[in-house]
Specification:
Elements lengths: L5 E3 L38 H29 L6 H28 L7 H34 L5 H80 L4 H20 L5 E3 H19 L3 E7 L7 E3 L4 H12 L6 E10 L2 E8 L9 H5 L2 H14 L4 E6 L5 E8 L6 H8 L1
Parallel strand pairs: 3-5
Antiparallel strand pairs: 1-3, 2-4, 5-6, 6-8, 7-8
Helix pairs in contact: 1-2, 2-3, 2-4, 3-4, 4-5, 4-9, 5-6, 7-9
Length: 416
């Protein structure tokens, strides 16, 4: 046994059971993490950042085509000034930067979707026929301004001389440009809708999982309460003072249970404190016939465990291993950290179980509920085993990942 590890039949507040004692350990409690709220599915959430990104996009296009024109003219022996190439290209693509939001708004208002795609297609085509020549006019105005800034000598006279040719020739090109702008918009919109569906599906799955876990945990409360009241009723006509103590302790347990009702996980120390109250009730009932041993690694006390994970297992050990026999019995509870997993064991020295282990799951709520909760919480990452112990009795073993180490000591222990 490691130094600092304690074998005991004990309460965690330092009280004594069957002559064994264990000091209480300090717990820095963690708040249970609330589920993350749904996030926006926009690729860029800030409006100003979106505008800046679009401005950068049109600027990059303008610089690309300006460089292409400049290098092409130099290659064919008719070089032009960089300012001229830049003025032509930037005015063209900045004009599209001004008009593209109109296409985006139209696509949002009248999307191409089943049931209305003919109307939307007609509106898209009509808008393109209007925007194509309008782009030429906007480009001309921007070109005058840019050439004035760049000192390239382009003015209204040059614009008028080219306007007729541009309106006819460039309008056809602009129709194609309208088409690819809308195509890019729909590609981005399709991806955005896919992300929305994916996010909605994952949120729905998370809500369903939480509802199922809550339902499973709620099954334990009436099951635990009924069995405990049954034990108290058995003493009411035999030992009234003991029955009163059991009722008082049951009240304390119900208070703690209500306080933790909304918590899916608690620290192992909190789980053992609740379990200690339950064991005090059972020891009042069985007296010397029930001895309890706790074999707890102190470093494991801060690990998170599912709420009410141990009580059904201990109740099963008492019900099947202790209650049917007149002789004294023993229940041992172990906790270890092994390779990033928390391993919990509940052992009794009763008659054990035959070959049909599944009968135990079908005969009561506790074990089947525990198996279902572990599967829901951890899936294939957990282990839940029932087998006959080598020294007699039943051994139940749970192992699952330690999701949130509280202290560096705990984190280093899980890596060992």
């Amino acid at each position: 046994m490691r130094a600092g590890q304690t074998h005991a039949a004990q309460s965690l507040d330092g009280s004594v059971i069957s002559g064994f004692r264990m000091d209480a350990y300090r717990l820095d409690r963690l708040a249970v993490a609330a589920p993350a709220p749904g996030r926006s599915t926009r690729l860029i959430r800030s409006p100003w950042l979106r505008r800046g990104t679009l401005f950068g996009f049109w600027t990059v296009l303008g610089l690309f085509f300006a460089s292409q024109a400049y290098l092409y003219q130099a290659g064919v022996g008719h070089p032009i000034r960089w300012s001229v190439a830049l003025g032509y290209a930037m005015s063209r693509w900045y004009a599209w930067g001004v008009l593209a939001p109109l296409l985006f708004h139209l696509a949002r208002r009248f999307p191409l979707e089943s049931g209305r795609w003919r109307t939307a297609l007609l509106l898209h085509g009509s808008a393109a026929l209007l925007i194509a020549p309008l782009q030429v006019l906007v480009e001309g105005g921007l070109r005058i301004a840019l050439f004035a800034v760049l000192g390239a000598g382009y003015g209204a006279a040059e614009l008028r001389s080219q306007l007729q040719t541009y309106l006819i020739g460039r309008s056809f090109d602009n129709l194609l440009t309208c088409g690819w702008i809308l195509a890019v918009y729909y590609l981005i919109d399709t991806y955005r809708k896919y992300r929305e569906r994916e996010l909605a599906t994952s949120q729905l799955e998370a809500r369903l999982a939480r509802a199922e876990l809550m339902s499973l945990r709620m099954q334990l409360h009436p099951h635990f309460l009924f069995n405990t009241l049954h034990s108290i009723a058995a003493l009411m006509h035999k030992d009234i003072p003991s029955a009163e103590r059991m009722l008082s302790r049951l009240g304390d347990l119900l208070r703690v249970s209500l306080e933790n009702a909304g918590r899916e996980s608690v620290s192992l120390k909190e789980e053992l404190e609740f379990l200690q109250g339950y064991l005090e009730i059972e020891q009042t009932r069985f007296r010397d016939r029930l001895a309890v041993e706790l074999d707890i690694d102190p470093l494991a006390l801060d690990a998170r465990v599912p709420n009410l994970i141990l009580q059904p297992l201990v109740e099963n050990a008492i019900r099947h291993g202790i209650a049917p026999r007149a002789a004294a019995g023993r229940v041992r509870i172990r906790a270890r950290l092994r390779g990033g997993l928390l391993q919990l064991q509940v052992l009794d020295n009763g008659p054990g179980v035959g070959a049909d282990i599944e009968r135990l799951f079908s005969s009561g709520v506790g074990l089947s509920n525990t198996r279902a909760r572990l599967q829901q919480l951890y899936g294939p990452r957990h282990r839940f085993e029932l087998r006959n112990a080598s020294g007699g009795g039943l051994q139940v073993t749970l192992a699952f990942p330690i999701e949130t180490p509280i202290s560096p000591a705990l984190e280093s222990a899980t890596e060992a």
